[in-house]
Specification:
The protein has 355 residues and is an alpha/beta fold. The chain is built from 14 helices and 13 strands. The strands form four sheets. A seven-stranded parallel sheet has the order 3-2-1-4-5-6-11, sandwiched between helices. Strands 7-10 form a two-stranded parallel sheet.
Protein backbone atom coordinates (compact mmCIF):
# COMPACT_ATOMS: atom_id res chain seq x y z
CA UNK A 1 0.00 0.00 0.00
CA UNK A 2 1.33 3.41 -0.91
CA UNK A 3 2.06 6.04 1.73
CA UNK A 4 -0.15 9.12 1.57
CA UNK A 5 1.07 11.96 3.77
CA UNK A 6 -0.80 14.97 5.06
CA UNK A 7 1.75 17.54 6.23
CA UNK A 8 0.13 20.19 8.41
CA UNK A 9 2.13 23.40 8.27
CA UNK A 10 3.62 22.53 4.89
CA UNK A 11 4.90 26.05 4.25
CA UNK A 12 6.80 26.25 7.54
CA UNK A 13 10.40 25.57 8.44
CA UNK A 14 9.83 21.90 9.36
CA UNK A 15 6.90 21.19 7.08
CA UNK A 16 8.61 22.34 3.89
CA UNK A 17 11.69 20.22 4.60
CA UNK A 18 9.49 17.25 5.49
CA UNK A 19 7.64 17.58 2.19
CA UNK A 20 10.97 17.42 0.34
CA UNK A 21 11.98 14.33 2.32
CA UNK A 22 8.72 12.49 1.68
CA UNK A 23 8.58 13.37 -2.01
CA UNK A 24 12.17 12.16 -2.42
CA UNK A 25 11.05 8.77 -1.09
CA UNK A 26 8.00 8.46 -3.33
CA UNK A 27 5.25 9.49 -0.95
CA UNK A 28 2.06 11.09 -2.20
CA UNK A 29 2.22 14.32 -0.20
CA UNK A 30 -0.55 16.76 0.63
CA UNK A 31 0.47 20.05 2.22
CA UNK A 32 -2.05 21.82 4.43
CA UNK A 33 -1.57 25.47 5.36
CA UNK A 34 -3.69 28.58 5.63
CA UNK A 35 -1.81 29.84 2.58
CA UNK A 36 -0.11 26.90 0.84
CA UNK A 37 0.97 28.93 -2.18
CA UNK A 38 4.66 28.49 -1.35
CA UNK A 39 4.48 24.71 -1.05
CA UNK A 40 7.27 22.57 -2.43
CA UNK A 41 7.03 21.41 -6.04
CA UNK A 42 5.14 18.13 -6.16
CA UNK A 43 3.11 18.84 -3.03
CA UNK A 44 -0.66 18.78 -3.44
CA UNK A 45 -1.76 21.99 -1.68
CA UNK A 46 -4.71 22.21 0.69
CA UNK A 47 -5.79 25.63 1.95
CA UNK A 48 -7.49 25.28 5.32
CA UNK A 49 -7.77 26.88 8.75
CA UNK A 50 -7.43 24.40 11.61
CA UNK A 51 -9.65 26.63 13.74
CA UNK A 52 -12.55 26.24 11.28
CA UNK A 53 -13.91 22.69 11.69
CA UNK A 54 -16.51 22.96 8.92
CA UNK A 55 -14.05 24.44 6.44
CA UNK A 56 -11.47 21.84 7.42
CA UNK A 57 -13.87 18.98 6.69
CA UNK A 58 -14.65 20.47 3.29
CA UNK A 59 -10.97 20.97 2.43
CA UNK A 60 -10.13 17.37 3.39
CA UNK A 61 -13.21 15.77 1.80
CA UNK A 62 -11.23 13.99 -0.95
CA UNK A 63 -8.09 13.28 1.05
CA UNK A 64 -7.48 9.95 2.77
CA UNK A 65 -4.02 10.11 4.33
CA UNK A 66 -2.25 7.13 5.80
CA UNK A 67 0.18 9.34 7.73
CA UNK A 68 -0.39 12.75 9.32
CA UNK A 69 2.45 15.06 10.35
CA UNK A 70 1.50 18.03 12.56
CA UNK A 71 4.24 20.68 12.42
CA UNK A 72 2.33 23.94 12.97
CA UNK A 73 1.11 26.05 15.88
CA UNK A 74 -0.20 29.56 16.51
CA UNK A 75 1.36 31.78 19.16
CA UNK A 76 -1.10 33.40 21.59
CA UNK A 77 -0.70 36.05 24.28
CA UNK A 78 -1.01 33.64 27.23
CA UNK A 79 -0.37 29.96 27.83
CA UNK A 80 -4.07 29.47 28.59
CA UNK A 81 -4.85 30.74 25.11
CA UNK A 82 -2.01 28.69 23.62
CA UNK A 83 -3.62 25.59 25.14
CA UNK A 84 -7.10 26.45 23.92
CA UNK A 85 -6.07 27.36 20.39
CA UNK A 86 -3.33 24.83 19.68
CA UNK A 87 -5.02 21.94 21.42
CA UNK A 88 -8.16 22.79 19.50
CA UNK A 89 -6.31 22.80 16.20
CA UNK A 90 -5.07 19.24 16.74
CA UNK A 91 -8.50 18.08 17.88
CA UNK A 92 -10.28 19.66 14.90
CA UNK A 93 -7.86 18.06 12.46
CA UNK A 94 -8.09 14.56 13.89
CA UNK A 95 -11.87 14.81 14.26
CA UNK A 96 -12.14 15.74 10.57
CA UNK A 97 -10.04 12.73 9.57
CA UNK A 98 -11.66 10.23 11.94
CA UNK A 99 -14.60 9.12 9.71
CA UNK A 100 -12.20 8.19 6.89
CA UNK A 101 -10.53 5.41 8.94
CA UNK A 102 -7.45 5.80 6.73
CA UNK A 103 -4.92 7.14 9.22
CA UNK A 104 -2.27 4.68 10.38
CA UNK A 105 0.14 7.07 12.10
CA UNK A 106 0.11 10.61 13.47
CA UNK A 107 3.36 12.45 14.22
CA UNK A 108 3.31 15.59 16.37
CA UNK A 109 6.23 18.03 16.54
CA UNK A 110 6.59 19.88 19.86
CA UNK A 111 9.97 20.83 21.36
CA UNK A 112 12.15 21.35 24.41
CA UNK A 113 9.56 23.52 26.15
CA UNK A 114 8.25 20.10 27.15
CA UNK A 115 11.18 20.08 29.60
CA UNK A 116 11.84 23.79 30.11
CA UNK A 117 8.30 25.07 30.56
CA UNK A 118 5.99 27.30 28.51
CA UNK A 119 6.81 30.78 27.24
CA UNK A 120 5.46 32.62 30.29
CA UNK A 121 7.42 30.41 32.75
CA UNK A 122 10.33 29.54 30.49
CA UNK A 123 13.51 28.18 32.10
CA UNK A 124 12.62 29.75 35.45
CA UNK A 125 14.13 28.65 38.76
CA UNK A 126 12.34 25.65 40.23
CA UNK A 127 11.31 24.16 36.86
CA UNK A 128 14.71 23.45 35.34
CA UNK A 129 15.44 19.87 34.30
CA UNK A 130 18.69 17.98 34.49
CA UNK A 131 20.55 18.13 31.19
CA UNK A 132 20.93 16.51 28.76
CA UNK A 133 17.12 16.34 28.68
CA UNK A 134 15.70 12.85 28.22
CA UNK A 135 12.30 11.71 26.99
CA UNK A 136 11.38 10.04 30.29
CA UNK A 137 11.56 13.38 32.12
CA UNK A 138 8.08 13.85 33.68
CA UNK A 139 5.78 16.65 32.67
CA UNK A 140 6.29 19.85 34.63
CA UNK A 141 3.50 20.95 37.01
CA UNK A 142 2.73 23.86 34.69
CA UNK A 143 0.18 24.59 32.01
CA UNK A 144 1.83 23.82 28.67
CA UNK A 145 0.23 23.72 25.24
CA UNK A 146 2.58 20.92 24.17
CA UNK A 147 0.95 18.68 26.77
CA UNK A 148 -2.50 19.66 25.50
CA UNK A 149 -1.51 18.81 21.93
CA UNK A 150 -0.11 15.45 23.02
CA UNK A 151 -3.28 14.63 24.93
CA UNK A 152 -5.41 15.32 21.84
CA UNK A 153 -3.25 12.89 19.83
CA UNK A 154 -3.46 10.24 22.54
CA UNK A 155 -7.24 10.55 22.77
CA UNK A 156 -7.75 10.32 19.01
CA UNK A 157 -5.36 7.35 18.79
CA UNK A 158 -7.36 5.51 21.46
CA UNK A 159 -10.55 6.26 19.52
CA UNK A 160 -9.33 5.53 16.00
CA UNK A 161 -6.60 2.93 16.52
CA UNK A 162 -3.66 4.67 14.82
CA UNK A 163 -0.08 4.76 16.08
CA UNK A 164 1.67 7.98 17.01
CA UNK A 165 5.06 9.55 17.58
CA UNK A 166 6.05 12.77 19.35
CA UNK A 167 9.15 14.68 18.20
CA UNK A 168 10.96 17.19 20.43
CA UNK A 169 13.55 19.26 18.56
CA UNK A 170 15.82 21.90 20.00
CA UNK A 171 16.13 25.20 18.09
CA UNK A 172 15.29 24.53 14.42
CA UNK A 173 17.81 25.73 11.83
CA UNK A 174 16.44 26.00 8.31
CA UNK A 175 14.91 28.31 5.75
CA UNK A 176 11.47 29.81 6.24
CA UNK A 177 9.90 33.22 5.70
CA UNK A 178 7.21 34.40 8.11
CA UNK A 179 8.10 31.69 10.64
CA UNK A 180 7.47 32.43 14.32
CA UNK A 181 10.63 30.72 15.64
CA UNK A 182 13.60 30.99 13.31
CA UNK A 183 17.02 31.55 14.85
CA UNK A 184 19.11 30.86 11.75
CA UNK A 185 17.37 33.40 9.53
CA UNK A 186 17.19 35.88 12.42
CA UNK A 187 20.96 35.71 12.92
CA UNK A 188 21.52 36.01 9.17
CA UNK A 189 19.41 39.18 9.06
CA UNK A 190 21.21 40.57 12.12
CA UNK A 191 24.65 39.84 10.65
CA UNK A 192 23.62 41.49 7.38
CA UNK A 193 22.59 44.62 9.28
CA UNK A 194 25.90 44.58 11.17
CA UNK A 195 27.81 44.39 7.91
CA UNK A 196 25.83 47.24 6.36
CA UNK A 197 26.21 49.52 9.39
CA UNK A 198 29.59 48.53 10.80
CA UNK A 199 28.06 47.32 14.06
CA UNK A 200 29.65 44.48 15.96
CA UNK A 201 27.91 41.11 15.78
CA UNK A 202 27.07 41.10 19.50
CA UNK A 203 26.06 37.88 21.26
CA UNK A 204 22.67 38.74 22.79
CA UNK A 205 22.31 35.99 25.39
CA UNK A 206 23.38 34.80 28.82
CA UNK A 207 26.70 33.72 30.26
CA UNK A 208 25.32 30.20 30.76
CA UNK A 209 24.52 29.94 27.05
CA UNK A 210 27.78 31.57 25.93
CA UNK A 211 29.97 29.19 27.92
CA UNK A 212 27.73 26.13 28.20
CA UNK A 213 27.22 23.22 25.85
CA UNK A 214 24.33 23.39 23.41
CA UNK A 215 22.88 21.69 20.35
CA UNK A 216 20.36 22.50 17.62
CA UNK A 217 18.13 20.68 15.15
CA UNK A 218 18.59 21.01 11.41
CA UNK A 219 15.18 21.07 9.68
CA UNK A 220 16.46 18.34 7.36
CA UNK A 221 17.31 15.91 10.18
CA UNK A 222 13.95 16.21 11.90
CA UNK A 223 12.35 15.52 8.52
CA UNK A 224 14.35 12.29 8.35
CA UNK A 225 13.33 11.30 11.88
CA UNK A 226 9.67 12.00 11.16
CA UNK A 227 9.72 9.68 8.13
CA UNK A 228 11.71 7.05 10.06
CA UNK A 229 9.30 6.99 13.01
CA UNK A 230 6.28 6.83 10.72
CA UNK A 231 7.59 3.67 9.05
CA UNK A 232 9.39 1.89 11.90
CA UNK A 233 7.32 -0.43 14.08
CA UNK A 234 9.68 -0.10 17.05
CA UNK A 235 9.07 3.66 17.03
CA UNK A 236 5.28 3.31 17.32
CA UNK A 237 3.73 5.16 20.25
CA UNK A 238 6.99 6.73 21.41
CA UNK A 239 8.31 10.25 22.04
CA UNK A 240 11.74 11.17 20.65
CA UNK A 241 14.19 13.99 21.09
CA UNK A 242 15.80 15.09 17.84
CA UNK A 243 18.99 17.15 17.41
CA UNK A 244 21.91 17.13 15.00
CA UNK A 245 24.03 14.76 17.06
CA UNK A 246 26.91 17.10 17.87
CA UNK A 247 27.37 19.64 20.66
CA UNK A 248 29.02 23.07 20.62
CA UNK A 249 29.54 26.20 22.68
CA UNK A 250 28.31 29.55 21.39
CA UNK A 251 31.69 30.94 22.48
CA UNK A 252 33.15 28.79 19.67
CA UNK A 253 30.39 29.04 17.04
CA UNK A 254 29.63 32.78 17.28
CA UNK A 255 32.90 33.87 15.74
CA UNK A 256 32.58 31.36 12.94
CA UNK A 257 29.14 32.72 12.05
CA UNK A 258 30.57 36.25 12.08
CA UNK A 259 33.42 35.19 9.79
CA UNK A 260 30.94 33.85 7.21
CA UNK A 261 29.46 37.35 6.93
CA UNK A 262 32.75 39.21 7.31
CA UNK A 263 31.69 41.06 10.45
CA UNK A 264 33.36 41.56 13.83
CA UNK A 265 32.12 39.23 16.55
CA UNK A 266 31.56 40.42 20.13
CA UNK A 267 30.93 37.81 22.82
CA UNK A 268 29.20 37.86 26.17
CA UNK A 269 30.48 40.89 28.06
CA UNK A 270 28.71 40.49 31.37
CA UNK A 271 25.36 41.85 30.18
CA UNK A 272 22.47 40.18 28.37
CA UNK A 273 21.76 42.32 25.30
CA UNK A 274 18.42 41.21 23.80
CA UNK A 275 18.32 41.08 20.04
CA UNK A 276 14.70 42.23 20.06
CA UNK A 277 15.86 45.62 21.39
CA UNK A 278 18.86 45.68 19.04
CA UNK A 279 16.65 45.22 15.97
CA UNK A 280 13.66 47.23 17.21
CA UNK A 281 14.37 50.28 15.05
CA UNK A 282 15.83 48.53 12.00
CA UNK A 283 12.71 47.94 9.89
CA UNK A 284 13.33 50.95 7.63
CA UNK A 285 17.05 50.11 7.44
CA UNK A 286 16.23 46.59 6.28
CA UNK A 287 13.82 47.91 3.69
CA UNK A 288 16.62 50.11 2.37
CA UNK A 289 19.05 47.16 2.33
CA UNK A 290 16.49 45.05 0.48
CA UNK A 291 15.92 47.74 -2.12
CA UNK A 292 19.62 48.38 -2.66
CA UNK A 293 20.49 44.69 -3.04
CA UNK A 294 17.31 43.57 -4.80
CA UNK A 295 16.23 41.25 -1.99
CA UNK A 296 13.00 39.27 -2.10
CA UNK A 297 11.70 40.19 1.37
CA UNK A 298 11.78 43.84 2.45
CA UNK A 299 9.87 43.20 5.71
CA UNK A 300 12.33 42.47 8.51
CA UNK A 301 9.56 41.07 10.73
CA UNK A 302 8.96 38.27 8.23
CA UNK A 303 12.59 37.18 8.48
CA UNK A 304 13.64 37.87 12.07
CA UNK A 305 11.96 36.36 15.13
CA UNK A 306 14.25 38.09 17.63
CA UNK A 307 11.98 37.39 20.60
CA UNK A 308 12.47 33.64 20.15
CA UNK A 309 16.22 33.87 19.57
CA UNK A 310 16.43 35.90 22.81
CA UNK A 311 14.39 33.24 24.61
CA UNK A 312 16.79 30.48 23.56
CA UNK A 313 20.06 32.37 23.97
CA UNK A 314 19.01 33.97 27.25
CA UNK A 315 18.45 30.74 29.17
CA UNK A 316 20.09 30.60 32.62
CA UNK A 317 21.40 27.06 32.06
CA UNK A 318 23.17 25.18 29.32
CA UNK A 319 20.70 23.05 27.38
CA UNK A 320 21.49 19.94 25.39
CA UNK A 321 19.54 16.90 24.36
CA UNK A 322 19.99 13.17 24.79
CA UNK A 323 19.45 11.17 21.59
CA UNK A 324 20.01 7.66 22.95
CA UNK A 325 16.39 6.52 22.64
CA UNK A 326 16.04 6.77 18.87
CA UNK A 327 19.69 5.77 18.34
CA UNK A 328 19.02 2.44 20.09
CA UNK A 329 16.06 1.87 17.77
CA UNK A 330 18.10 2.49 14.61
CA UNK A 331 17.87 6.19 13.80
CA UNK A 332 21.52 7.01 13.15
CA UNK A 333 21.42 10.22 11.08
CA UNK A 334 23.93 12.97 11.92
CA UNK A 335 24.28 16.59 10.85
CA UNK A 336 27.14 19.04 11.49
CA UNK A 337 25.77 22.14 13.21
CA UNK A 338 28.34 24.42 11.58
CA UNK A 339 27.19 23.11 8.20
CA UNK A 340 23.55 23.64 9.21
CA UNK A 341 24.19 27.37 9.57
CA UNK A 342 26.50 27.71 6.57
CA UNK A 343 24.16 25.74 4.28
CA UNK A 344 21.29 27.95 5.42
CA UNK A 345 23.22 31.18 4.84
CA UNK A 346 24.22 30.04 1.35
CA UNK A 347 20.61 29.17 0.54
CA UNK A 348 19.34 32.52 1.84
CA UNK A 349 21.87 34.31 -0.36
CA UNK A 350 20.95 32.20 -3.38
CA UNK A 351 17.25 32.92 -2.81
CA UNK A 352 17.96 36.68 -2.47
CA UNK A 353 16.78 36.85 1.13
CA UNK A 354 20.17 38.23 2.22
CA UNK A 355 22.79 39.93 0.00
Amino acid sequence: MSNIALVVGASGIIGSNLCQELLAHGWTTYGLARNPGGAESGVRPIAADLLDPAGLQTALAEVQPTHVFITSWLRQDTETENIRVNGGMVRNLLDALSPKSSVQHVALVTGLKHYLGPFDAYAKSGTLPLTPVREEHPRLPLDNFYYAQEDEVYAAAARDGFGWSIHRPHTIIGKAVGNQMNMGVTLAAYATICKETGRKFQFPGSEAQWNGLSDVTDARIIAKQLRWAATTEAARNEAFNIVNGDVFRWSWLWGRLADWFGVEAAGFDGTVRPLEAELANDADLWRSIAERHGLAEPNLDRLASAWHTDLDLGRPIEVMTDMAKSRKLGFLEYQSTEDSFFDLFAQLSQDRLIP
